[in-house]
UniProtKB/TrEMBL annotation:
Organism: Scophthalmus maximus (Turbot)
Protein name as annotated: Alpha-catulin
Gene Ontology molecular-function annotations: actin filament binding; cadherin binding
Region (Disordered): 682-714
Key words, A-Z: Cytoplasm
GO cellular component terms given for this protein: cytoplasm
GO biological process, one term: Rho protein signal transduction
Family designation: Belongs to the vinculin/alpha-catenin family.
A Pfam family hit: Vinculin
Compartments where found: Cytoplasm
InterPro entries for the chain: Alpha-catenin/vinculin-like_sf (IPR036723), Alpha_catenin (IPR001033), CTNNAL1 (IPR030045), Vinculin/catenin (IPR006077)
Length: 731
């Protein structure tokens, strides 16, 4: 999979990282290695800096050693990966040892000029060791991830075998026994696929996984009642059709999950979405605006063809029997205006090319603006039609009149009434299916397009299943099982209507620019753009935060009882400080100032730390208690101020610095309390803790390999070892 980077000096790019867990596991290691390499630009170091570099190098080596131990244990338990994993672990251990040797103070020599120590004389060796370490660690993580995929496939296979048994049972007693087993297997599969869904980096795959898992969740209850109905009425054709439909849909959903996790060519990533108007408008507008940069990148004829292909997609709106005359005319009028504006642009473009213009002429610029405006009008028009149609349908169908009528007619054994209301439900289904198709055109993002397609398929499938369930009840009106079965399918229909309402809200949010993963009070806040001087100031604050939190990490290492509230919560604040620091360098998880403020809001949870500190203060003598309580009140005030500041939408740059500064003070106080705890705690000395910890280490690591929290294969243990590399950086 990966060649050693030592030989060619290049980091292996063949290892594609597809999950967040692997990516996040590598971040601390990359940060520390970057720090070590950057220090090589100034070979002469002060004693303090040298000590910091030494700690980083030694800590990297120790952490890699623990990491490799888990990787080797995984290789022992999975023979098919033994050779690859063993080689990757060997390379990682060798690189970790090399880094430790290169950062060893004992091997550094003092300079004859000023007595300072010179380190990193072998720059090439450090770079090679760093690249080898990153390559080998990444390979170990990717191999471990393959084990998780194998576990999902194994779980799916167990579900399929039990599903086949369920389909063939002939007695209630046998069905109850096998369905109990099936339920347990589905719970395990849901757990594994849920973790995988959250871990995926690709938002399209995540949306497809969510759709498949939603089908499995809803179909599990349908399978129960449909199978029971078929067992009770074995000669009923409509009951058999109803049951067969559920089994078929479950098998398709199971296969879709496997296609996603294994990236099978037949489906998953390579399954094409229908061509949407939104994407057509985005591509066309991009082509138009690119003319400002290059007049000769494409031809006027190709732009005309691109517009006609876009207009053709609007036929889903204009040809629909449910589109009003006014709506149809409005869309056609906007399309005609877009044609006219595009033709003017093409004429100006041809004229500019004829005189060999190097950039867009004034006539072209005017035509570009007009074309973009008319295309924007088209987007607004189709969005208004699709969203208006969906809103009206949800209002009408929210009353569930056909469903209630079908339930009543079925319970009365009235086959004619069931047939009549089945036709009405079919018409309703067709309206919903077409509306989902229109929403797909205007959804605005590929994950939402996938959700629209899922909604369309769900209405298309469940509609006929409700009808077959109602027919069964009408044939057996006294059957409680048949009645329960119809209820379950009707509930699934109602649930999909609720999901459609949420989908509609998401599409509106995207259209209006409100969509985001921040808290509600941050949605209207605007990102703050900082000038060079302010960025430097923030970077200095961030660096100080990082150094302070590193001191905290060093102190916390003496206290390995992670369950202790003060240690755990203080370390959590230090981790947040690290994220803030990475933001000032343009790295890490925080991408915008809005993300920064959200992190500050989370940091205000330091109030929980105050409660633990109050309890701790009761163990101190009066003088010590007075000091702690004084500082504690300061921490409470700062956290409250941070809470208020973070929840206030910002309208300028001042709030940015205020929030960062308050966070800095919070971390300062946390460091004070943890250091105070390490000196005064009556729970035992750090050495006692360390001895007990070392004695229990082998047992704990072995347990991690077999626990459910580690997915049974130790991947979580790998993540935890690497996440522990939250070490000292020093400039």
């Amino acid at each position: 999979m990966a060649s050693s980077p030592c030989g060619n000096g290049n980091f292996d790019s063949g290892l594609e990282i597809k999950t967040r867990s692997v990516e996040q596991t590598l971040i601390p290691l990359v940060s520390q290695i970057t720090t070590l390499i950057n220090h090589k630009d100034k070979p002469k170091k002060s004693e303090r800096t040298l000590a910091a570099i030494h700690r980083v190098g030694q800590a990297v080596s120790v952490a890699v050693g623990r990491f490799v131990a888990v990787g080797e244990a995984i290789a022992t338990e999975n023979q098919e990966l033994k050779d690859e994993m063993g080689q990757a672990c060997f390379e990682a251990r060798r690189a970790g040892d090399a880094i430790a040797q290169l950062t060893d103070v004992a091997s550094a020599l003092p300079s004859q000029a000023d007595g300072r120590v010179t380190v990193f004389s072998d720059r090439t060796g450090m770079v090679k060791a760093a690249r080898l370490l990153l390559s080998s660690v990444t390979k170990v993580l990717v191999l471990a991830d393959r084990i998780v995929i194998k576990q999902i496939i194994t779980s799916r296979n167990k579900v399929l075998v039990t599903l086949d048994h369920l389909e063939r049972v002939s007695t209630f007693q046998e069905f109850v026994q096998i369905f109990s087993q099936f339920g347990n297997e589905m719970v395990e599969f849901a757990h594994l696929t849920g973790d995988r869904q959250n871990d995926l980096k690709d938002e399209k795959k995540k949306a497809r996984m969510a759709a498949a898992r939603a089908v499995l969740e809803k179909c599990t209850m349908m399978l129960l009642t449909a199978s029971k109905t078929c067992l009770r009425h074995p000669d009923c054709e409509s009951a058999r059709i109803n049951k067969d439909g559920v089994f078929h849909r479950m098998r398709c959903a199971l296969e879709q999950v496997i296609d996603i996790v294994t990236e099978a060519r037949s489906c998953g990533e390579n399954q094409l979405l229908p061509a949407s108007i939104y994407n057509g408008i985005k591509d066309f507008k991009s082509s138009v605006e690119c003319l400002r940069e290059n007049l000769y990148s494409s031809s006027p004829q190709s732009m005309g063809s691109q517009l006609e292909a876009l207009v053709e997609r609007t036929e889903d709106f204009t040809d629909s029997a449910y589109t009003s005359h006014e709506q149809r005319q409005a869309i056609l009028s906007v399309c005609q205006l877009a044609r006219q504006d595009t033709q003017q642009l093409m004429n100006a473009w041809i004229e500019a090319q004829s005189v060999h213009a190097k950039e867009a002429t004034e006539d072209m610029e005017v035509a570009i603006l007009k074309t973009c405006q008319s295309i924007g009008d088209l987007r607004r028009e189709v969005h208004k039609v699709a969203v208006g149609r969906a809103t009206d349908l949800l209002k009408v169908h929210g009353e569930q009149l056909p469903l209630r009528a079908l339930k009543t007619a079925g319970a009365e054994g009235n086959l004619e009434a069931v047939a009549e209301y089945s036709r009405k439900l079919t018409e309703q289904k067709e309206q919903l299916v077409e509306t989902c198709r229109l929403l797909c055109h205007v959804s605005g993002t590929e994950p939402l397009e996938i959700t629209c397609v899922h909604a369309e398929e769900t209405f298309h499938v469940i509609g006929p299943q409700i009808i077959s369930a109602a027919q069964t009840l009408a044939l057996h009106p006294s059957s409680k099982i048949a009645k329960e079965n119809l209820e379950v399918f009707c509930e699934a229909w109602e649930s999909q209507l609720c999901d459609m309402a949420l989908l509609l809200r998401e599409i509106n949010d995207v259209f209006e620019g409100r969509r985001g993963k921040l808290s509600a009070n941050l949605k209207t806040a605007k990102a703050v753009k900082l000038d060079a001087e302010e960025q430097t100031s923030m970077a200095k604050l961030g660096l100080e935060l990082r150094l302070l939190s590193s001191d905290l990490d060093t102190e916390v290492e003496k206290w390995e009882a992670q369950e202790h509230d003060i240690v755990r919560q203080s370390q959590s604040l230090a981790s947040m400080a690290y994220n803030m620091y990475l933001f000032t360098r343009g790295e890490g998880l925080l991408k915008t100032t809005l993300d920064l403020f959200h992190q500050a809001e989370v940091c205000a949870s330091g109030l929980q730390l105050c409660s633990a500190l109050r309890t701790f203060s009761t163990q101190l003598v009066d003088e010590e208690k007075s000091v702690v309580m004084t500082e504690l009140e300061k921490l409470v005030a700062l956290c409250q101020q941070l809470q208020m500041g973070a929840k206030t939408p910002v309208q300028g740059k001042t709030a940015t610095f205020q929030k960062v500064l308050i966070l800095r003070l919070c971390v300062l106080l946390c460091i004070f309390f943890v250091c105070y705890k390490s000196e005064r705690s009556s729970l035992g000395s750090p050495q006692d803790w360390r001895e007990r910890q070392d004695a229990s280490t082998p047992v704990r690591e072995e347990g991690a390999l077999n626990s459910k929290n580690s997915n049974g294969f130790g991947l979580k243990s790998l993540e935890q070892h690497m996440a522990g590399l939250n070490l000292l950086e020093s400039k």
